[in-house]
Design goal:
The protein is mainly α and about 60 residues long. It has one helix and no strands. It has one domain. Helix content is about 35%, strand content about 0%. The longest helix is centred in the last third of the chain and has 22 residues. It is elongated.
C-alpha cells in the first residue's frame, strides 16, 4: 500500500533514537517532512480520483 494509501500521518524525521534535538526544536529534516507529506497526500488523492469512476472489483 505504501504511498497509495498512507497507513499513518507521521511524516516527521526524528534522526533516530537517542539524545538530541526534537523535531520542534530543530529545523533539520523539516523540508523532507513537508515533501513527504505532500507526496503522500497527492498520491492518495490521485488514487481516490482514479477510483471515483467505479469501485475496484472484489479480489478473486
Amino acid at each position: 500500500m505504501g504511498f497509495t494509501m498512507p497507513g499513518q500521518a507521521w511524516t516527521y524525521w526524528n534522526r533516530g533514537p537517542g539524545p538530541g534535538d526534537d523535531y520542534l526544536s530543530s529545523e533539520a529534516g523539516k523540508d523532507w517532512s513537508r515533501s513527504t507529506g505532500r507526496t503522500a497526500a497527492a498520491d492518495l488523492l490521485a488514487v481516490a480520483r482514479a477510483l471515483g469512476g467505479g469501485a475496484m472489483p472484489p479480489p478473486g
